[in-house]
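ugh finaly. both done.
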Amino acid sequence: MSKDFEELDYRKTPLGELTLRRRRVLALDGLEVFEVKLGDAFLMSSLFHEVEVALADLGLHELGAGEWDVVVGGLGLGYTAVAALAHETVRSLVVVDALEAVIDWHQRGLVPLGAKLCGDPRCRLVLGDFFALAVSEAGFDAGRKFHAVLLDIDHSPRNLLHERHGSFYGIDGLRALAAHLHPGGIFALWSDDPPEEEFLRALGAVFATAKADVVTFSNPLLERESASTVYVARKAAMAARA
Protein backbone atom coordinates (compact mmCIF):
# COMPACT_ATOMS: atom_id res chain seq x y z
CA MET A 1 0.00 0.00 0.00
CA SER A 2 1.50 3.33 -1.03
CA LYS A 3 1.92 6.31 1.29
CA ASP A 4 -0.67 8.13 -0.83
CA PHE A 5 -3.45 5.73 0.22
CA GLU A 6 -4.00 3.79 3.42
CA GLU A 7 -6.96 1.89 4.82
CA LEU A 8 -6.83 2.72 8.52
CA ASP A 9 -9.69 0.53 9.72
CA TYR A 10 -12.36 -1.84 8.48
CA ARG A 11 -15.31 -3.13 10.49
CA LYS A 12 -18.50 -5.04 9.85
CA THR A 13 -21.33 -3.17 11.57
CA PRO A 14 -25.14 -3.54 11.85
CA LEU A 15 -25.41 -0.83 9.16
CA GLY A 16 -22.92 -2.47 6.78
CA GLU A 17 -19.18 -2.54 6.10
CA LEU A 18 -17.50 0.54 7.57
CA THR A 19 -14.13 1.76 6.29
CA LEU A 20 -11.84 4.55 7.41
CA ARG A 21 -9.16 5.53 4.94
CA ARG A 22 -6.56 8.20 4.41
CA ARG A 23 -5.39 9.41 1.02
CA ARG A 24 -3.51 12.26 -0.54
CA VAL A 25 -5.32 14.21 -3.27
CA LEU A 26 -2.58 14.90 -5.80
CA ALA A 27 -4.79 17.34 -7.70
CA LEU A 28 -4.90 19.45 -4.52
CA ASP A 29 -1.16 19.61 -3.92
CA GLY A 30 -1.11 16.34 -2.02
CA LEU A 31 -3.69 17.39 0.57
CA GLU A 32 -4.24 14.66 3.18
CA VAL A 33 -7.89 13.63 3.31
CA PHE A 34 -9.68 11.26 5.70
CA GLU A 35 -12.77 9.48 4.35
CA VAL A 36 -15.44 7.21 5.80
CA LYS A 37 -17.37 4.76 3.64
CA LEU A 38 -20.37 2.63 4.55
CA GLY A 39 -20.51 -0.11 1.96
CA ASP A 40 -20.04 1.63 -1.38
CA ALA A 41 -21.40 4.97 -0.17
CA PHE A 42 -19.26 7.84 1.11
CA LEU A 43 -20.46 8.99 4.53
CA MET A 44 -18.06 11.85 5.14
CA SER A 45 -14.76 13.39 4.15
CA SER A 46 -12.41 15.82 5.86
CA LEU A 47 -12.28 17.65 2.53
CA PHE A 48 -15.82 18.92 3.10
CA HIS A 49 -16.69 19.91 6.64
CA GLU A 50 -17.99 23.47 6.35
CA VAL A 51 -21.60 22.41 6.86
CA GLU A 52 -20.77 20.27 9.90
CA VAL A 53 -19.21 23.38 11.45
CA ALA A 54 -22.17 25.51 10.35
CA LEU A 55 -24.54 23.07 12.07
CA ALA A 56 -22.95 23.85 15.43
CA ASP A 57 -22.49 27.56 14.78
CA LEU A 58 -26.00 28.22 13.46
CA GLY A 59 -27.65 26.17 16.17
CA LEU A 60 -25.69 27.52 19.13
CA HIS A 61 -25.83 31.10 17.88
CA GLU A 62 -29.56 30.98 18.55
CA LEU A 63 -28.93 30.38 22.27
CA GLY A 64 -26.90 33.53 22.88
CA ALA A 65 -25.08 34.07 26.18
CA GLY A 66 -25.22 31.55 29.02
CA GLU A 67 -23.92 28.12 29.96
CA TRP A 68 -25.29 25.38 27.77
CA ASP A 69 -25.52 21.60 27.85
CA VAL A 70 -25.47 20.20 24.31
CA VAL A 71 -26.00 16.86 22.55
CA VAL A 72 -24.47 16.02 19.19
CA GLY A 73 -26.03 13.09 17.37
CA GLY A 74 -23.39 11.48 15.13
CA LEU A 75 -19.67 11.70 15.88
CA GLY A 76 -18.27 11.10 12.38
CA LEU A 77 -14.90 12.78 11.96
CA GLY A 78 -15.69 15.10 14.86
CA TYR A 79 -16.18 18.44 13.10
CA THR A 80 -19.58 19.30 14.59
CA ALA A 81 -18.45 18.33 18.09
CA VAL A 82 -15.23 20.35 17.88
CA ALA A 83 -17.13 23.35 16.48
CA ALA A 84 -19.57 23.12 19.40
CA LEU A 85 -16.72 23.03 21.92
CA ALA A 86 -15.25 26.15 20.31
CA HIS A 87 -18.18 28.02 21.86
CA GLU A 88 -17.15 29.02 25.37
CA THR A 89 -20.82 28.99 26.33
CA VAL A 90 -20.91 25.18 26.00
CA ARG A 91 -20.66 23.77 29.53
CA SER A 92 -21.01 20.09 28.61
CA LEU A 93 -21.20 18.06 25.42
CA VAL A 94 -22.58 14.55 24.98
CA VAL A 95 -21.77 13.00 21.59
CA VAL A 96 -23.86 9.96 20.71
CA ASP A 97 -22.81 7.49 18.03
CA ALA A 98 -24.20 4.03 17.29
CA LEU A 99 -20.94 2.66 15.87
CA GLU A 100 -18.29 1.57 18.35
CA ALA A 101 -15.66 1.77 15.61
CA VAL A 102 -16.19 5.52 15.15
CA ILE A 103 -15.70 6.23 18.85
CA ASP A 104 -12.65 3.94 18.82
CA TRP A 105 -11.08 5.93 15.95
CA HIS A 106 -11.16 9.06 18.08
CA GLN A 107 -9.93 7.38 21.25
CA ARG A 108 -7.03 5.78 19.37
CA GLY A 109 -6.12 8.97 17.53
CA LEU A 110 -6.74 7.52 14.07
CA VAL A 111 -8.57 10.69 12.99
CA PRO A 112 -7.16 14.22 13.25
CA LEU A 113 -9.66 15.61 15.79
CA GLY A 114 -9.69 12.60 18.11
CA ALA A 115 -7.15 13.86 20.62
CA LYS A 116 -8.83 17.27 20.83
CA LEU A 117 -12.24 15.79 21.57
CA CYS A 118 -11.05 13.13 23.99
CA GLY A 119 -8.84 15.63 25.79
CA ASP A 120 -11.62 18.16 26.47
CA PRO A 121 -13.15 17.53 29.92
CA ARG A 122 -16.47 18.97 28.78
CA CYS A 123 -16.89 16.24 26.15
CA ARG A 124 -18.21 12.71 26.65
CA LEU A 125 -18.49 10.16 23.82
CA VAL A 126 -21.45 7.80 24.26
CA LEU A 127 -22.06 4.56 22.39
CA GLY A 128 -25.79 4.42 21.69
CA ASP A 129 -28.62 4.71 19.20
CA PHE A 130 -29.44 8.42 19.00
CA PHE A 131 -32.92 7.75 17.61
CA ALA A 132 -33.85 5.25 20.31
CA LEU A 133 -32.57 7.60 23.03
CA ALA A 134 -34.41 10.57 21.51
CA VAL A 135 -37.81 8.88 21.85
CA SER A 136 -37.11 7.24 25.22
CA GLU A 137 -38.36 8.65 28.51
CA ALA A 138 -34.83 8.84 29.95
CA GLY A 139 -33.46 10.62 26.89
CA PHE A 140 -29.75 11.09 26.37
CA ASP A 141 -28.58 11.14 29.99
CA ALA A 142 -30.87 9.68 32.65
CA GLY A 143 -33.61 12.26 32.20
CA ARG A 144 -31.34 15.33 32.07
CA LYS A 145 -32.59 18.09 29.77
CA PHE A 146 -30.37 19.91 27.29
CA HIS A 147 -30.23 23.37 25.74
CA ALA A 148 -29.42 22.18 22.21
CA VAL A 149 -29.41 19.00 20.15
CA LEU A 150 -27.38 19.02 16.93
CA LEU A 151 -28.03 16.08 14.59
CA ASP A 152 -25.80 14.89 11.74
CA ILE A 153 -26.48 11.21 11.01
CA ASP A 154 -28.79 10.62 8.03
CA HIS A 155 -28.15 12.19 4.63
CA SER A 156 -31.49 13.99 4.96
CA PRO A 157 -34.91 13.46 6.58
CA ARG A 158 -35.83 11.40 3.52
CA ASN A 159 -32.47 9.83 2.61
CA LEU A 160 -31.84 7.60 5.61
CA LEU A 161 -28.99 5.34 6.66
CA HIS A 162 -31.60 2.94 8.01
CA GLU A 163 -35.36 2.83 7.48
CA ARG A 164 -36.04 2.61 11.22
CA HIS A 165 -34.86 6.23 11.55
CA GLY A 166 -37.80 7.44 9.46
CA SER A 167 -40.36 7.82 12.25
CA PHE A 168 -38.09 10.25 14.12
CA TYR A 169 -38.58 12.91 11.44
CA GLY A 170 -42.36 12.93 11.86
CA ILE A 171 -44.33 14.96 14.38
CA ASP A 172 -44.37 12.27 17.08
CA GLY A 173 -40.61 11.69 16.89
CA LEU A 174 -39.82 15.40 16.95
CA ARG A 175 -42.18 15.93 19.87
CA ALA A 176 -40.40 13.19 21.82
CA LEU A 177 -37.06 14.89 21.14
CA ALA A 178 -38.40 18.29 22.17
CA ALA A 179 -39.32 16.84 25.57
CA HIS A 180 -35.58 16.50 26.28
CA LEU A 181 -34.94 20.20 25.62
CA HIS A 182 -35.20 23.04 28.10
CA PRO A 183 -37.78 25.72 27.25
CA GLY A 184 -36.30 27.85 24.48
CA GLY A 185 -33.95 25.00 23.52
CA ILE A 186 -32.66 24.43 20.00
CA PHE A 187 -32.84 21.47 17.64
CA ALA A 188 -30.59 21.77 14.56
CA LEU A 189 -30.17 19.25 11.76
CA TRP A 190 -27.79 18.80 8.82
CA SER A 191 -29.23 17.66 5.49
CA ASP A 192 -27.47 17.07 2.19
CA ASP A 193 -30.69 17.85 0.29
CA PRO A 194 -32.35 21.20 -0.45
CA PRO A 195 -34.89 22.47 2.11
CA GLU A 196 -38.00 20.30 2.29
CA GLU A 197 -41.33 22.00 2.96
CA GLU A 198 -42.87 18.83 4.39
CA PHE A 199 -40.16 18.56 7.03
CA LEU A 200 -40.38 22.28 7.83
CA ARG A 201 -44.11 21.80 8.43
CA ALA A 202 -43.38 18.93 10.82
CA LEU A 203 -40.85 21.11 12.68
CA GLY A 204 -43.36 23.95 12.77
CA ALA A 205 -46.00 21.69 14.30
CA VAL A 206 -43.71 20.90 17.26
CA PHE A 207 -41.42 23.91 17.72
CA ALA A 208 -42.21 27.58 18.17
CA THR A 209 -40.01 28.57 15.22
CA ALA A 210 -38.35 26.65 12.40
CA LYS A 211 -36.19 27.70 9.48
CA ALA A 212 -33.86 26.24 6.86
CA ASP A 213 -30.51 27.84 6.02
CA VAL A 214 -28.75 26.86 2.79
CA VAL A 215 -24.99 26.64 3.35
CA THR A 216 -22.74 26.77 0.29
CA PHE A 217 -19.13 25.65 0.17
CA SER A 218 -16.40 25.27 -2.40
CA ASN A 219 -16.05 21.83 -3.98
CA PRO A 220 -12.49 21.73 -5.37
CA LEU A 221 -12.95 18.29 -6.91
CA LEU A 222 -15.89 19.45 -9.03
CA GLU A 223 -14.52 23.00 -9.35
CA ARG A 224 -17.84 24.54 -8.33
CA GLU A 225 -19.90 25.34 -5.27
CA SER A 226 -21.98 22.71 -3.50
CA ALA A 227 -24.78 23.27 -1.00
CA SER A 228 -26.40 21.61 1.99
CA THR A 229 -29.15 22.60 4.41
CA VAL A 230 -29.12 23.32 8.14
CA TYR A 231 -32.54 23.31 9.82
CA VAL A 232 -32.83 25.22 13.09
CA ALA A 233 -35.91 24.96 15.31
CA ARG A 234 -36.54 26.56 18.71
CA LYS A 235 -38.75 25.16 21.45
CA ALA A 236 -41.22 27.59 22.97
CA ALA A 237 -39.90 29.47 25.97
CA MET A 238 -41.59 29.02 29.31
CA ALA A 239 -44.43 31.46 29.66
CA ALA A 240 -43.81 34.22 32.19
CA ARG A 241 -45.90 34.07 35.37
CA ALA A 242 -48.44 36.80 35.88
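ok and the 2nd:
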Amino acid sequence: MKATEIRELTLDELRARETELDDQLFRMRIQKSMGQLEAPGKVKGLRRDLARIKTILREKAAQ
Protein backbone atom coordinates (compact mmCIF):
# COMPACT_ATOMS: atom_id res chain seq x y z
CA MET A 1 0.00 0.00 0.00
CA LYS A 2 1.39 3.39 -0.96
CA ALA A 3 1.46 6.40 1.36
CA THR A 4 -0.81 8.39 -0.97
CA GLU A 5 -3.44 5.64 -0.79
CA ILE A 6 -3.17 5.54 3.00
CA ARG A 7 -3.55 9.31 3.34
CA GLU A 8 -6.92 9.14 1.59
CA LEU A 9 -8.36 6.88 4.31
CA THR A 10 -10.29 8.23 7.29
CA LEU A 11 -9.03 7.92 10.86
CA ASP A 12 -11.42 5.06 11.61
CA GLU A 13 -10.32 3.17 8.51
CA LEU A 14 -6.66 3.75 9.43
CA ARG A 15 -7.16 2.43 12.95
CA ALA A 16 -9.00 -0.62 11.63
CA ARG A 17 -6.25 -1.29 9.09
CA GLU A 18 -3.60 -0.85 11.82
CA THR A 19 -5.33 -3.44 14.02
CA GLU A 20 -5.70 -5.81 11.09
CA LEU A 21 -2.03 -5.55 10.10
CA ASP A 22 -0.88 -5.92 13.70
CA ASP A 23 -2.92 -9.11 14.03
CA GLN A 24 -1.60 -10.45 10.71
CA LEU A 25 1.98 -9.72 11.75
CA PHE A 26 1.45 -11.51 15.06
CA ARG A 27 0.11 -14.61 13.29
CA MET A 28 3.03 -14.59 10.85
CA ARG A 29 5.55 -14.37 13.70
CA ILE A 30 3.96 -17.42 15.31
CA GLN A 31 4.08 -19.30 12.00
CA LYS A 32 7.73 -18.34 11.61
CA SER A 33 8.62 -19.63 15.06
CA MET A 34 6.90 -22.91 14.25
CA GLY A 35 8.64 -23.18 10.88
CA GLN A 36 5.41 -22.97 8.89
CA LEU A 37 5.85 -19.56 7.27
CA GLU A 38 5.68 -19.86 3.50
CA ALA A 39 6.57 -16.28 2.48
CA PRO A 40 9.14 -14.74 4.84
CA GLY A 41 9.45 -11.67 2.62
CA LYS A 42 5.84 -10.77 3.34
CA VAL A 43 6.72 -10.01 6.98
CA LYS A 44 8.94 -7.16 5.86
CA GLY A 45 6.18 -5.70 3.71
CA LEU A 46 3.65 -5.93 6.54
CA ARG A 47 6.01 -4.19 8.94
CA ARG A 48 6.56 -1.37 6.47
CA ASP A 49 2.82 -0.94 5.80
CA LEU A 50 2.15 -0.87 9.53
CA ALA A 51 4.86 1.77 10.00
CA ARG A 52 3.38 3.88 7.19
CA ILE A 53 -0.06 3.74 8.75
CA LYS A 54 1.24 4.63 12.21
CA THR A 55 3.18 7.57 10.77
CA ILE A 56 0.16 8.94 8.95
CA LEU A 57 -2.01 8.47 12.04
CA ARG A 58 0.49 10.58 14.01
CA GLU A 59 0.51 13.21 11.27
CA LYS A 60 -3.28 13.45 11.28
CA ALA A 61 -3.43 13.56 15.08
CA ALA A 62 -1.01 16.53 15.14
CA GLN A 63 -3.23 18.56 12.80
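summary for the 2nd one i guess: Helices lie at 3-7, 11-34, 41-62.
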